[in-house]
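Postdoc handover notes: sequence design on the structure in folder B. Input tokens:
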């Protein structure tokens, strides 16, 4: 059965109203046939001997025809649609599609989770997410009986309970992580995807117009970490949630290991480019949550020098010294490791903990021993 608020029979009028809407939470609205739901790939963890906890991050929206909004968005981004080729213009329309939607508030979503049906023919528990906020977002933690044979790195899939007259299949997934192990927290822009954040014009073209290009060699390095060190991946980026679909496609197409994805909430096209401090706040919050949820795991932090990754990772490493086994910064700003910036960012941290690298093959990797005893290899590993 679903977890619902009880009908307040002691309040006849209100009770009648609730009965008429199915006894759902006051003000909540069910999904309509036009509603879309996006779930960001999240994480799951052990909770007691036979229970696990899943984080669920959803966004509910509806596609709407908004003539002129594409031109307005292009103008805001200082992009000239008339100067684009047909292919580039089509790509711009596709990548900005989710900036032209109507986020749906007060939507109530029920989920079917693994193990919720204990016996064939038995009614299943269908836990409900908190109703969506004004930005269409809902965040929750759901507990369920641990599926049998669950291993570190397995994906737990869940689906939306759809109205009887809606045959669509909507759902998401969560990455189950063992208590101990190696996790890689990776930025996206200019760390694994060429964005040129330091050049606003090129950054906008690379984000909305040009084909996404991977930083050479990074996918191979990440695959080596996944296969040889059993690393699990968490992609933490200040890119807005509206870019999730093309970014997810990029990660798959370029062969990066699948992992949880943590994108910035953006409520309108005017916040496509994060305001001052928004990127740092988002990343610190997302990274802090991962460290809090998995206090026994070890973390390798990989970013670039284009924005604030050195400063953010330095702060994280000082706060969580026992969990951080390495910091790797891709050099896109021509600042050497002896620069004032890096000396300030990584103050009080061992010099062997962090590295500024120019290309993927020169990035130092961690062997399996780093997962168990925190040891760090100073020489570049080859494979």
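Designed sequence:
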């Amino acid at each position: 059965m679903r977890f619902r608020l009880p009908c307040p029979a002691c309040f006849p009028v209100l009770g009648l109203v609730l009965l008429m809407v199915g006894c759902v939470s006051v003000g909540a609205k069910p999904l309509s046939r036009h509603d879309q739901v996006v779930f960001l790939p999240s994480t799951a963890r052990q909770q007691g001997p036979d229970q696990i906890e899943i984080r669920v991050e959803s966004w509910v929206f509806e596609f709407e025809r908004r003539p002129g909004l594409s031109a307005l968005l292009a103008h805001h981004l200082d992009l000239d649609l008339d100067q684009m080729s047909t292919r580039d213009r089509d790509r711009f329309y596709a990548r900005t599609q989710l900036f032209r939607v109507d986020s749906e508030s007060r939507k109530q979503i029920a989920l079917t989770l693994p193990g919720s049906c204990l016996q064939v023919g038995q009614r299943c528990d269908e836990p409900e997410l908190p109703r969506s906020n004004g930005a269409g977002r809902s965040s929750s933690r759901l507990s369920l009986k641990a599926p049998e044979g669950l291993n570190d790195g397995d994906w737990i899939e869940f689906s939306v309970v759809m109205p009887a007259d809606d045959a669509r299949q909507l759902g998401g997934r969560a990455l189950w992580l063992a208590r101990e192990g190696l996790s890689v927290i990776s930025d996206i822009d200019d760390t694994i995807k060429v964005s040129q954040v330091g050049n606003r014009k090129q950054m906008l073209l690379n984000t909305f117009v040009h084909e996404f290009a991977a930083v050479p060699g990074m996918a191979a390095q990440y695959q080596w970490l996944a296969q040889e060190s059993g690393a699990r991946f968490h992609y933490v980026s200040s890119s807005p949630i509206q870019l999730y679909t093309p970014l997810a496609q990029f990660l798959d197409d370029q062969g990066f290991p699948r992992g949880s994805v943590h994108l910035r909430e953006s409520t309108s096209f005017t916040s496509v480019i994060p305001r001052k401090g928004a990127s740092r706040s988002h990343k610190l919050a997302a990274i802090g949550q991962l460290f809090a949820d998995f206090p026994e795991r070890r973390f390798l932090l990989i970013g670039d020098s284009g924005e604030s990754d050195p400063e953010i990772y330095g702060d994280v490493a000082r706060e969580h010294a026992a969990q951080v086994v390495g910091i790797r910064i891709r050099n896109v700003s021509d600042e050497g490791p002896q620069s004032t910036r890096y000396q300030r960012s990584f103050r009080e941290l061992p010099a062997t903990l962090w590295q500024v690298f120019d290309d993927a093959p020169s990035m130092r990797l961690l062997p399996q021993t780093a997962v168990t005893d925190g040891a760090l290899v100073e020489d570049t590993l080859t494979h």
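Context for whoever picks this up: Residues 1-25, 373-383 have pLDDT under 50 and may be disordered. Don't rerun without checking with the PI first.
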